[in-house]
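Example (one chain per record):
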Amino acid sequence: MSIFQVTDGTAISYTDWGTGQPILFSHGWPLAGDAWAPQMLFFASQGYRVIAHDRRGHGKSGQPWAGNNMDQYADDLAELIEALDLKDMIMVGHSTGGGEIAHYVGRHGTARVDKMVLVGAVPPLMLKTEANPEGTPIEAFDGLRKGTATNRSQFFKDLSMPFYGFNKEDAKVNQGLRDTFWRLGMQGSIKAEYDCIREFSEVDYTEDLKKIDKPTLVVHGDADQIVPIAAAGLKTAKIVKGAELKIYPGAPHGLAETEAEKFNADVLAFIRA
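Predicted structure:
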């Protein structure tokens, strides 16, 4: 674990392993960089440099009261990327992390980027509106806020079930994954996690997606109960010019963990193409 201090003094924790072309991983809510453990081990073993950070207020990073918004997340990431002098990097973002790397491009461009991977990612917009009828009603996000604010520990335990699709009738529950989801979620700041709900649900990333001019792989499970594919992956693949779409039949939101072997192989093939 390494620590980088961004301009406002917040400490950003990150893991940086291996050598070679850099792959930067951006995690989902309410997790941390360690959620990428299966990918970090695999890709470092394949000869890549792998970096996974804990977004401010999450994991082992600092827990400021202010700054828990997507503009700041993207700027924190830009500072870290510049400090590590990452070039020709592959950016991989899951869920909220997909919004983060898209917004990084929207604010800082693609000069340091080679390719991008969006998996179960929140762009272009999760919230249901007149212009986005496939989205999720605001009441669902209000429920996330209430659960986080008033009963966070039990709420995260419960949320791990649909996150990994373990609530499906034929699902084999992996208790270890559920325990890790809870552990990583509870490491974070309740304030940051509460604030972040708005950032992944109500921020419109359409203009950010339009600025992506690098080869992009969009991966989404068609059984994703957290970020439904109709409002997310299917639309993103149409907005990002030349994007490749891979739909995982029956896969849940946390498919990078439940189907790590397949996901790793698909991303490796995309990188090497």
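Caption: The beta strands are 2-5, 11-17, 22-26, 49-53, 89-94, 113-119, 216-221, 244-248.
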